[in-house]
Design goal:
The structure holds 2 protein chains of 2 kinds. Chain A is built from 5 helices and 8 strands; from the N terminus they run βαββαββαββαβα. By secondary structure, chain A is of the alpha+beta class. In chain A, the strands form 4 sheets. Chain A has a two-stranded antiparallel ribbon. In chain A, strands 2-3 form a two-stranded antiparallel ribbon. Chain A has a two-stranded antiparallel sheet with strand order 4-5. The relative contact order of chain A is 0.22. The model of chain A has no long low-confidence stretch (mean pLDDT about 90). Chain B is an alpha+beta fold. Chain B folds into 3 domains: about 200 residues, 4-Layer Sandwich (Aldehyde Ferredoxin Oxidoreductase,  A, domain 1); about 150 residues, Aldehyde Ferredoxin Oxidoreductase Protein, subunit A, domain 2, CATH 1.10.569; about 170 residues, Aldehyde Ferredoxin Oxidoreductase Protein, subunit A, domain 3 (Orthogonal Bundle), CATH 1.10.599.10. Chain B contains 26 helices and 17 strands. The longest helix of chain B is centred in the last third of the chain and has 21 residues. The radius of gyration of chain B is 23 Å and the shape is globular. The mean pLDDT of chain B is about 95. The chains are: A alpha+beta, B alpha+beta. At the A-B interface, helix 1 of A face helix 4, helix 7, strand 13 and strand 15 of B.
């Protein structure tokens, strides 16, 4: 297995669907950051919108430890950036076979609608714009071991609130 | 081309043909885009003799230069047509994700004319356009229509604006809905769309919007976002959304449309059931339109009672008062009402006001149960309201057909003094009590699309900031600056609707949010053309004059800028108590003078129109004998 080297581990993007309002600010800012145009269809992350049940799920590249895209690539175009830990794609070596698109468990390796290039999240060189602009912190950029704890908090918030409610109900009125 | 997509699609539904044309540069220069260019196209192409449902009426979609960009809440598109219940100028505005997608596909405007012999929908996939058969969609509700088109096209993310059964049966207050719950709600644009046999527009775009000064634009937009994030008023709206206004109006301003205005506001014991706490009980999560930092919408779910399990996106102040108008005080019902009206493609208020009017007639014995299709229209009857709503959207009985006309036309057809119980201005029902204050009354009376707060009601201190004077917008019982403030807000809102931002997180709602100076910065960086706060406001003035000139040409005058009698005579608990007619007429005179319009007729003067570069409109109005000089 390919090893990550940083002592405390890299920082990663985590998404919290509960908080997402579906505004797609992350998409439009991501595309602007990378291509200097307003065009979310070129974004390197997705807000998957299930309109009929009112659910929005931001999907971001997990830069997997043992990355399926990296393993699937026959030309060596995909590699890990040693500074940021991002799994990145080099257009010079990519032969657009799209094996990585098929391999990605999250569906976040993109095919650029304008150029046809296979593209993916590069963590904006360690300062991802999506996490910065999200108005609800539905995308957070944090140390990889902290991320799951953030998600656990979010997942258990309603449980915490219902406990408080249960205690309150014992107050004599 | 920077900012604008630069192209307009024209569809002739009679012929089933379309053409793509460059959006004329002169229109972009003089009218910005969105609502502004829409208004000019309507003036140029739809004369006063044309009925709203005539194939010659135009249905015009417009998304302004900032739509789809980094600019905060850049989601809004405007639909304009001759209005089915104002019989004059009308436009309507919606958020969601449809407007941005239209821009990404490469278009600023869509202009529909004619009438198709069979139902059609327009599919836009970047450069590929197709007027497609919609027979299988006719009769389907808005949500089914969206789902079927997504499946037909094979693209789950395609953006759709559609009409429901209400638009098909020409209910005069039918809406166009995009993204399941965002509506171009005011004015009956859905009925105009239905009259053209156009069921939906589906759009997919990948071209993007180019920027002249990329660094400066990003900087200006990020600054705008920060302003919104830091604003305390936006924090309140971000949590409670617009139902917050129901509390404000009912508990602070002491006026709130209730029981067809028989009550001045919701009684305290009932208000508990429709107040903020009751609302927050329904909230599942928050929801925002494209690139919004505010997220004023909510996903709501009814958790108990007869509507348990009902879920949908909502809701505005309006849906809260819809129930109240029919003497129903239950937000679970309001949610059910919201979901049903969204699904059927009808304005939430239209049927509520029509049913409330009918309930009052029923109580007075002017309508029998038999006449009302066997429905018991007793005040507060929830079943009756929902059954009637369904019938109105079909319009297949004489009574449901009558209610589908809207309160103005319906009361004039029904007669028997019912006109006095229909509370509207120029056909547009009154959703805010004019006795709240002077600017409220004036802005509703003079609005170019019938009684409406979104054209010129001062909802923030922006006028004071702009003029650098102390201006108490919160105390609407004082007369000072009111005429000038309303004129300023009309121009400001015309700018906002034309560049394509939402009014919520701009000067329109709060002076802490981006205003004319920030718009100028964003517009200059985006388009590479020079804008200043003053030049933008001047364009707003021009746009509003075109709207007013359109109405003058349709025969509307100063007399149409009046309130229903009730508001002049019956006092309530507000500070103003009642709108004193003489003072109000003086205020109107001051307003027309401020606008350089003729105070006797309310028409724009030839001099003013020429100053604004609207010489052809001045000539047109002169030729028709509307104005002199």
């Amino acid at each position: 297995m390919e090893k990550e080297t940083s002592e405390h581990g890299f920082r990663l993007l985590f998404s919290q669907p509960r908080a997402c309002v579906g505004c797609r600010a992350c998409e439009v800012f991501c595309a602007y950051h990378h291509y200097r145009e307003n065009n979310p269809s070129r974004a390197l992350l997705r807000v998957v919108k299930f309109d009929s049940i009112s659910v929005d799920i931001p999907v971001v590249c997990q830069h997997c430890g043992d990355a399926p895209c990296l393993k699937a690539c026959p030309t060596g175009a995909i590699s890990r950036n040693p500074t940021t830990g991002a799994v990145v794609i080099s257009q010079a070596e990519c032969n657009q076979c799209r094996a990585c698109v098929m391999a990605c468990p999250y569906g976040v390796i993109m095919i650029d609608p304008k150029t046809g290039e296979v593209t993916k999240c590069d963590l904006c060189q360690g300062d991802p714009v999506c996490a910065k602009v999200c108005p609800k912190h539905a995308i957070v950029y944090t140390r990889r071991d902290v991320g799951p704890r953030v998600l656990a908090r979010s997942a258990n918030q309603s449980l915490a609130e219902s406990l408080l409610e249960a205690w309150r109900s014992r107050i004599q009125k | 081309m920077f900012g604008w997509a630069g192209k307009t699609i024209r569809v002739d539904l009679t012929k089933g043909s379309y053409s793509v044309q460059p959006t004329p540069d002169i229109l972009m220069r003089d009218f910005l885009g969105g609502a502004g260019i829409n208004a000019k196209i309507l003036y140029d192409e739809v004369g006063p003799e044309i009925d709203p449902f005539d194939p010659k009426n135009r249905l015009i979609f417009g998304a302004g230069p900032l739509v789809g960009t980094l600019a905060p809440s850049s989601a809004r598109y405007t639909v304009t047509a001759k209005g089915p219940f104002t019989f004059a100028f009308c436009d309507s505005n919606s958020g969601g994700h449809f407007g941005p997608e239209l821009k990404y596909a490469g278009y600023d405007h869509l202009v529909f004319q004619g009438r198709s012999s069979t139902p059609k929908y327009l599919l836009i996939d970047d450069d590929n356009l197709e007027v497609k058969d919609a027979k299988h969609l006719w009769g389907k509700d808005v949500w089914q229509t969206e789902d079927i088109i997504k499946e037909d096209v094979g693209d789950p993310d395609i953006k759709i604006a559609a009409i429901g059964p209400a638009g098909e049966s020409l209910v005069r207050y039918a809406v166009i809905i995009n993204d399941h719950a965002r509506a171009a709600g005011w004015g009956g644009m859905g009925a105009v769309m239905g009259s053209k046999n156009l069921k939906a527009i589906a759009v997919r775009g990948t071209k993007g919007i180019q920027v002249a000064d990329q660094e400066k634009f990003e900087e200006a937009c990020l600054k705008g976002r920060e302003m919104v994030r830091k604003s305390p008023k936006m924090k309140t709206i971000g949590i409670y959304g617009k139902p917050w206004l129901n509390w404000l109006r009912n508990e602070v301003q002491k006026s709130n449309p209730t029981k067809n205005y028989l009550l001045p506001r919701v009684p305290p014991e009932e208000f508990k059931k429709v107040g903020l706490e009751a609302f927050m009980d329904l909230v599942v999560k928050w929801k925002g339109c494209f690139n919004c930092t505010l997220d004023c919408a909510h996903i709501l779910m009814s958790k108990s009672g007869r509507y348990a399990g009902t879920m949908g996106e909502g809701f505005e102040y309006n849906q809260a008062i819809d129930g109240q108008m029919m003497n129903i005080y239950d937000l679970n019902f309001a949610l059910k009402w919201t979901v049903e009206t969204n699904r059927l493609g009808v304005d939430c208020d239209g049927p509520a006001y029509a049913i409330a009017w009918a309930m009052e007639l029923y109580e007075r014995g002017l309508i029998s149960k038999e006449q009302a299709d066997g429905i018991d229209l007793t005040w507060g009857n929830e079943d009756a309201a929902l059954q009637m709503l369904d019938k109105i959207c079909k319009r297949d009985t004489p009574f449901s057909h009558l209610l589908g006309e809207g309160v103005d036309l319906a009361s004039r057809k029904f007669g028997k003094g019912s006109e006095k119980l229909a509370y509207h201005i120029k056909g547009g029902r009154l959703e805010i009590d004019p006795r709240t204050g002077w600017a409220t009354a004036l802005s509703h009376a003079t609005s170019t699309r019938g009684a409406d707060h979104l054209k010129g009601m001062p909802l923030s201190n922006a006028f004071g900031v702009w003029k650098n004077i102390p201006y108490e917008f919160t105390d609407d019982s004082k007369l000072d600056y009111k005429a000038e403030a309303v004129a300023f807000f009309e121009n400001l809102n015309a700018v906002i609707d034309s560049i394509g931002l939402c009014k919520n997180d701009t000067w329109s709602q709060s002076a802490e949010c981006p205003g004319l100076h920030e718009f100028a910065e964003m517009m200059t960086a985006l388009t590479g053309r020079d804008y200043t706060a003053n030049s933008l406001l001047g364009i707003g003035d021009r746009i509003y004059n075109v709207e007013r000139a359109y109405n003058s040409r349709c025969g509307l005058t100063r007399a149409n800028d009046s309130l229903p009698d009730k508001f002049y005579t019956e006092p309530i608990e507000t500070k103003l108590r009642v709108v004193d007619k003489e003072t109000f007429e003086n205020l109107k005179t001051e307003y027309y003078t401020t606008r350089s319009w003729d105070p006797a007729t309310g028409h724009p003067t030839a001099k003013k129109l020429r100053e604004l570069g609207l010489e052809p409109i001045a000539e047109d109005l002169k030729k028709r004998g509307v104005i002199r000089g």
